[in-house]
Amino acid sequence: MSANDAFRITVLPGDGIGHEVMAPCIAVLEAAARRIGGFSLRFDEHQAGALAYRDTGVALPKSALDAARRADAILLGAMGWPEVRYPDGTEIGPQLDLRFELGLYAGVRPVRTLPNMPAVLADPRARQLDFVVIRESTEGLFASRGKGVVEEDREARDTMVITRKVCEPLFDFAFALARSRKARGAPGAVTCVDKANVFASLAFFRKIFDERAALNTDIRAEHAYVDATALYMVRRPWEFDVLVTENMFGDILSDLGAGLMGGMGFAPSADIGDENAVFQPCHGSAPDIFGQGKANPTAMILSGAMMLEWLGERHGREEAVRAGGIVREAVDAAYGAGLKPYEIGGGDGTGAVTDAVMQALARIG
């Protein structure tokens, strides 16, 4: 893109609180872009999700998918609704369809604690966590989505798929991320999380990891079994830097990481491929609080910050990287000043969180 072009952002608010957290995110991103200058954002909203499926029979319309393909980045709120399911009983998940359709193999799940959060672990080191779980997002057990077999109501079978084609760029992505984090003071280590002692597919996963590690000798390469990793994430999570793992394992460990931060409302994420990327909070559509003004937009706002930084790095636009940085600074400042959403026992709803972040953003020089 040229210096005068706007970044084209396809917006998929989705279901439930997806709409409620998307508007604050867009407001914050636009304010950050104005504050830094040198670039702009053009948002194009499309409907997709469980309620779209209920009303039209289509969860991800072709128009929305085509817009996502053309966009510079995709912002997604939350998708799914408990009572709306496919005929086989599985949930409506266009966010998963996007990962497969766009080849978004690297699911990036930062685990970074915010100031003044209630203690989740007793050790004071757990109050300053900063590591990343990278979840392979297109293969593993999720390769069986929609393809599982149930035989005569007596046996069910899903198949794990691990390919070199996906693993090589996944591990290269993990080492590159660790390298960029090392430049900012992180340890510079990538841990391959697997169950290579039991499954041939995950022994293959580890084999490819070791091959890529041999090409990235400036970064420390480590191994850990997934069960031990779950233990370490509770006992000593501050020792991690970048974890890379299979799809299902990453799904579980990233939620554990969200718990270490205080809840799903604080957990941003990205699903990144070679050409496209989706940025979304880790939480769901939360029907239990939908329409009550209680939704915590923090994870959505932080996902937007990740989007700005990715856009800036991808297109060589330092001003976009800086804008993402000041959004994160504003979130930290708002929580440092005592912000407490309902999620952690406070009384600050969607509007109060948004106002606090916007006010903090206005004070950043």
From TrEMBL:
<dbReference type="GO" id="GO:0000287">
    <property type="term" value="F:magnesium ion binding"/>
</dbReference>
<dbReference type="InterPro" id="IPR050501">
    <property type="entry name" value="ICDH/IPMDH"/>
</dbReference>
<keyword id="KW-0464">Manganese</keyword>
<keyword id="KW-0479">Metal-binding</keyword>
<comment type="subunit">
    <text>Homodimer.</text>
</comment>
<dbReference type="Pfam" id="PF00180">
    <property type="entry name" value="Iso_dh"/>
</dbReference>
<dbReference type="InterPro" id="IPR019818">
    <property type="entry name" value="IsoCit/isopropylmalate_DH_CS"/>
</dbReference>
<dbReference type="GO" id="GO:0051287">
    <property type="term" value="F:NAD binding"/>
</dbReference>
<keyword id="KW-0432">Leucine biosynthesis</keyword>
<dbReference type="InterPro" id="IPR024084">
    <property type="entry name" value="IsoPropMal-DH-like_dom"/>
</dbReference>
<comment type="similarity">
    <text>Belongs to the isocitrate and isopropylmalate dehydrogenases family. LeuB type 1 subfamily.</text>
</comment>
<protein>
    <recommendedName>
        <fullName>3-isopropylmalate dehydrogenase</fullName>
        <ecNumber>1.1.1.85</ecNumber>
    </recommendedName>
</protein>
<keyword id="KW-0100">Branched-chain amino acid biosynthesis</keyword>
<keyword id="KW-0560">Oxidoreductase</keyword>
<feature type="domain" description="Isopropylmalate dehydrogenase-like">
    <location>
        <begin position="8"/>
        <end position="357"/>
    </location>
</feature>
<keyword id="KW-0520">NAD</keyword>
<dbReference type="GO" id="GO:0003862">
    <property type="term" value="F:3-isopropylmalate dehydrogenase activity"/>
</dbReference>
<keyword id="KW-0028">Amino-acid biosynthesis</keyword>
<keyword id="KW-0460">Magnesium</keyword>
<dbReference type="GO" id="GO:0009098">
    <property type="term" value="P:L-leucine biosynthetic process"/>
</dbReference>
